[in-house]
Amino acid sequence: MNDSTSTLEPLFTALSYSFTTLERNFYKIPGSAVVARYVKSSHQNDPGRTLLEVILIIFAIRTLLQSRTRADNSGKHFIQFDEKEIDDLVEEWTPEPMVAPLSPKEQADLASVPVIVGPTGPKPKLSNGKTVINLASYNFTGLAGNEVIKERCIDSLRKYGLGSCGPPGFYGTQDVHIQLEHDIADFLGTEAAILYSQAFSTVSSVIPAFCKRGDIIVADRGVNFAIQKGLQISRCTVRWYDHNDLKSLEYVLESVEKERRKKRGPLTRRFIVTEGIFDLDGAMSDLPKLVELKFKYKYRLILDESVSFGSVGRTGRGLTELYNVPASQIDMLVGSIANGLTSCGGFCAGSNIVVNHQRINGTSFVFSAAMPPMLSVAASEGINILRNTPSILTTLQENIRAVRAILEKVDCINIPSHSVSAIIHLQVRLPSPTHLTPQMASVTPTSPKPSSPLLATPREVVQFDHELEEKILQDIVEEALAQNVMVTRAKRLRGQELQEIRPSIRLALTAALTKKDCEKAANVLKAAFVKVVGRRR
Amino acid sequence: MPSPIAFNPSSPSRSMFRKKKSINAMSTAASYLSAVSEADARARIQNGSPTSTPALSLSSSITASSEDTILDESEDNEDGLTYPSVPPTSEQVFTTVHTEFGHCGNEAFRFTSGHPLGEPVKVIHEQDPPYYILLTTYISYILVIVLGHIRDFFGKRLKPNAYKHLMFQDGYAALNSDFDSFYTRRLKLRIDDCFSHPVTGVPGRTIVLLDRASPDYNVTMIPTGTKTRALNISSYNYLGFAQGKGACSDAVEESVNRYGVASCGVRLEAGTLDLHVQAEALVARFLGVEDSLISSMGFATNSTIIPALVNKGCLVISDEFNHASIRFGVRLSGASVRMFKHNNMKSLENLLREVISQGQPKTHRPWKKILVIVEGLYSMEGTFVNLPKVLELKKKYKFYLWVDEAHSIGAIGPHGRGVCDYFGIDPHSVDILMGTFTKSFGAAGGYICGRKDIIDRLRISAHTGSYAESMAPPVLTQVIASMASIMGVTIIQDKPASSSLSLLRSSDASDLTITEPPSTTYPGNAPSTALPSWISLPPTLVDGSEGQMRLRRLAFNARYLNRALRKLGFIIYGHEDSPVIPLLLFHPGKMAVFSRMMRTRAIPIVVVVVAYPATPLVTSRVRFCLSASHTKEDVDTLLRACDEIGDLLDLKQGQGERWPLKDIIDRAVELVNMKEMP
Ligand SMILES: Cc1ncc(COP(=O)(O)O)c(C=O)c1O
C-alpha cells in the first residue's frame, strides 16, 4: 500500500503541477476572470445550469470548428511534393487558351445577326437600311411601342428614376412591383406572384428553391434550356418522359412509385416539370390531362408558360385560360413578362406559401436587384390592355392561321408546332430517303419498349443532318431577308442542350401585323423554302 | 474645379450662411422659398451689382413642376430631409432635386479615390471583439434556437393547423419541411420588419417608406397607408444616378419616346438594337479594353457566362465570400471549385501550389485551365481585392482572372473605372472584367469586358446570347448617358455638324468651345460619335465636370464615414475608401433594434442589416452604402445617430484612438485628407 503510494506520488505531483499551470494560464487569458466568477456564482445558485451551459459551449465550439474544416490534403490521393518539385510543376504547367477561337461558321453566324436601328416592332428598320416585316421578335400582342405604355413609363420614370438600386429584400421593393405582382396573380387567378428581373433566370431559380437533393422530378425530354439548368443546379433525382407524351409520363410516374415501394424509401417531394407551349418546337401540353395525372400521383406541377403566357387564351392568360383549368391547380406557374407583356423579367405565380418561400430561397430573386420600376409599370399597363381588349388575341390567332395556311401546304416544310401556338417552328423536310422526317418517325409504330426514364435521350432518336439543315435554313433566312421579311433560326447551344435539337426557323407571330402582311411574309418564306431546297436537288 | 451641380461663380459671399446657421430645418416649402429669396436679397446688397448673380428663379435651383412632390406643401420638412438645412445662396445654382441628390456646394468636401502609386497594399486586419461579446452572441443564438424548438414542439401539438404546410399532407411531402425552414421561421421572422420594406419614389439620397405594421409578430405585414421619408443609406446608388430629374432621365425619356420599352427578343435572334451595339462599344471604351458584352441582369451575367468559359476538367478558385451569382454560375459550369480565405493572398498562393502540383483529383492529370474569380469590392465586407498581388500571382501561376466589379465599377478609382483604376493597373492585365449597371449607374443588368476574341466567343457560347432577353432600350440609354457623363464627351465634328452638336442642348451649344482632340487613351473621354445622335446632354455632363463631382463627393463621403466611425470606436470592416461600410453588431438581437432605432429617429434613416447566412454566424452587421448624393450634413446626421445608438447598444468595441463626435464633425476635412489615420 505504502509502496504503491510512493510510486504514484510523482504522478500526483505531475498532475497537480499541470493543473496549476493550466489554471494560471487560464487566468492569463483576458476576460477569463469574469468567466470564472460567473461560472462559480451560477454553479452555486443552480448546478444544473452549469451543465447546460457547458454543453452549449461545446456545441458552439463544434459549430465554430465545423465551419473551418475544409477538404484539404488529407485525402488518400494526395501526393507529397517538396517546394522545388512544386515550383517545377508550376513551371511546366501550360493551361489551355482561355477560349477557342471562333470557327468560320460561328463568325458568319455572328455577322448574320440582324441589328435593328430604332424601335423594334412589326416593321422595324435594319442596319442595312431596309424596312422589314418582323416575324422574329417576341411581340405577340403587339404591345411594343404602345403609346399608352410609353406615357405611363415616362410618368413613372419621373417618379421613380430608372433603376431600383437594390435587391427586393433591401429597400428595392417598390410599390409598383407589389402592384405588378398583384396584377399578375389577379390576372391568372392565383393567390400571389413573385417577380424576377430576367425571364431566363426565373425558372432556373424556381426549381432549385423547392427541389433539393433526394427529391424527385419527372420532366419532359424537350424542356427548354432554362429548365435544364434549373434541374442541374437542384441536384435532385430526375426522371424523363418522352416529349409531350402523357402516356410516357404516366408510365414514368408508375415506375417511380414502384421503385420507391421496392426501396421503401421515404416520401420525398415530387414534381412534374414541363412547359405550356414548348420553346423547343411549339408543341402544346394537354393541360387537363397533366393536371389529372399530377393529382392522381400526388405530384406538384411546375409549368413554364414562357411562350404561352400572353399568346394563347381569350385574353392571353395562357394555357389555363385556353383549357379552362383554374391556375390555382398549378403549383408553380412560371411565365415570361419579357415575352408575354413585352417588358422585361419573369414571374412565378402560385399559392402564398409557394411565393413566400421563394422570397427567401429563390436565388436570383434574393441576390439580384429588383427590376426597374418603369418596366414593371409597363407590364402592369400591358395586363390592363390585354384584359380590356380581347380582340388582340383574336387578331393574333387569325394571323397564325393565315401564316400556317400558306406554309403547311409546302412540301419541304415540316411544322411541329401546335396550331394555336404563336411561335411556329419550320423544319426543313428533304425529299431524299436518307433523311427521316420526324413526321415519318412518329407514324412508324413506336417500339413497344419505352425509353428508360433514367436517360435524357429517348430510345428512338430521329436522325438528321444537323449541319446541312442548318445551312439550308440559314440560306432561307437570308433569302427572306432579301425580300424584306425578317425571320430567324432558333438559336441553340449545340452540345450544351440535353439532346441534339433539329434545326428550325422560329417564327413569332404578332397581332400588330395585318393579315395581309402576314400572308405576304408567309408567301415570301414559302418561295424562299422552295427556292433554297430546290437548289439542293 | 467648380462643381457644376453646385455651380459657384467664385463670389465672396460664399460663407455668408456660416453665421446664419441657426436657420436650420425649414418646415414648409413656403418658408424655404422665402429664405432663399431673403438670402438672395442680402447677396444683392452685399455684392452691389447683381451681374454675377443669376436671377432667382425657382427652376434654376430646384427643378419644379406642378406634380413635383418636392414642392408639395403637404410634405413638411420637419425632418430636414426635403430642403437643405442651409439654404443656398443665389450664386449656387443647383440643378438637382435635394431629396434625390443633395445640394452640396462646398468644394472642401471632395476627395479623390485612389491608391498611392508605388506603395504596397496594406493588408487590413479585422478587429476582433472582446470575448464576452462572442460568448454572448453564441448564447443568444442558442437561446433563440432552443426557444424555437420548444415553441415548435408545443405548437405542433397545440396548433397543428399552423404547421400543416410543414408536414406530410395527404400524400404530399412538405414543400418546405419544418427543419429546413427553422431558421426562417424562428430566427428571421423575429426581425422581419427590417427586411423587404416596401418603398416608393426615387431611391436616391432619401427614400419614401410605405409604413407597415404587423399585428401578429411579423407573420403578416399590413400597410398603414402613411409614408415616411427617410435618409437612404441603403441603396446601391454610389454615384447618385438614381434620379427622376436630370439629364440622364431626360435622355431616358427621349429613348422611351423613340424606342418604346422593350427589345423583344434575345441577342442572337432578333433582339439586337443599334443601342446595344453603341452601349457595348461605350462600355469597352469606359473600361479601356477591346470589347464588351451586355446582359440584361447582373446576376445572370455571372450565372450564365461563367459556364461558357470553364467546364469539366477546369478548376475555379473562388474567394470564400464571393457572391451567390458566381457560385451559381460555377455550379452550372461543371468545373471543380476550391475556395481560399477571403482576400488572403497567402491562402490563395498555397492553394494554387497545391492544385497545380496535384492536378485533377484521382487522375492527377493537369487541369485544363484555372480560373480565379474575385470581386473588386466585396459588398458585405467593404474590402477591395488585393489586385496587385493577385496579378503578381497570375504571372507566376498562369491562371485566368475574372474580376466581378459589381460594386467597384464607378464607385472607386480617380476616374471611376473600378479597382484597376484605383490601383493604377492596366485593365488589359485582367482577362475578364465583369460588372453590373445596377449599382453605380442607376440602371440594371451587367457587362463582361475583355479581349475581342474572348467576348466574341462568349456572344456565341454563353447562355445569354441564345436564350435570355436582351436589355431594354431605356435601360441602355441610362447606361449610355450616365457612363458618358462620367467619361466626359469630346465633340467630334463630322460632316453633318448638326448631328453631333445635337448632343448638346441647343440653348447651351454656344457656350461650348471645342478644344480637345478625340482621344482614345484610357481613361479618356467618349467621342460624341460613340453616342446616339439624339442624346442631348447639358455642358456640365459633356465636359465631365459633373461626373468628376460625383466621383469626388462619393470618395469624400466614403472616407469620411469610414474614418469617423472608427474614430467613434466602432468595429468597422473593410477598406477606408470603400463606399460600402459594414459596422459590426455581433448580436443577432441588436440588428433589429439598430434598424428600428434608425428608422424611428426624428430624421429617419434606413440602413441594411445582414446576418447569417449572408455573413458568418457571429458577425452580424449593419451595412451602410454611401452615395455621391449624400451631403456632408447627411453623413453628420448618420454619425450622430450611430453615436447615440452605439452607446445604447454597447457597440463601441473597437481599439485605437477615439475622438469625440463634435471634433469629428468639425474636423471632417482634416480627417479625410490625413494620409494615415492616427
Ligand atoms: C458581386 C455581385 N455580383 C453580381 C450581382 C448581381 O447584380 P444584379 O443585382 O444587377 O443582378 C451583385 C449584386 O448584388 C453583386 O454584389
TrEMBL record, chain A:
GO terms for biological process: ceramide biosynthetic process; sphingosine biosynthetic process. Pathway: Lipid metabolism; sphingolipid metabolism; Sphingolipid metabolism. GO terms for molecular function: pyridoxal phosphate binding; serine C-palmitoyltransferase activity. Keywords: Acyltransferase, Lipid metabolism, Pyridoxal phosphate, Sphingolipid metabolism, Transferase. The keyword Acyltransferase applies. Its EC number is 2.3.1.50. One of its GO terms (cellular component) is membrane. InterPro entries: Aminotransferase_I/II_large, AON_synthase_class-II, PyrdxlP-dep_Trfase, PyrdxlP-dep_Trfase_major, PyrdxlP-dep_Trfase_small. Its cofactor is pyridoxal 5'-phosphate. It comes from the Eukaryota. Residues 131-524 form the Aminotransferase class I/classII large domain. Belongs to the class-II pyridoxal-phosphate-dependent aminotransferase family. This is serine C-palmitoyltransferase. It comes from Meripilus lineatus.
TrEMBL record, chain B:
One of its GO terms (biological process) is sphingosine biosynthetic process. Its EC number is 2.3.1.50. It catalyses: L-serine + hexadecanoyl-CoA + H(+) = 3-oxosphinganine + CO2 + CoA. One of its GO terms (cellular component) is endoplasmic reticulum. Gene3D superfamilies: Aspartate Aminotransferase, domain 1, Type I PLP-dependent aspartate aminotransferase-like (Major domain). Residues 231-480, 545-641 form the Aminotransferase class I/classII large domain. This is serine C-palmitoyltransferase. It comes from Meripilus lineatus.
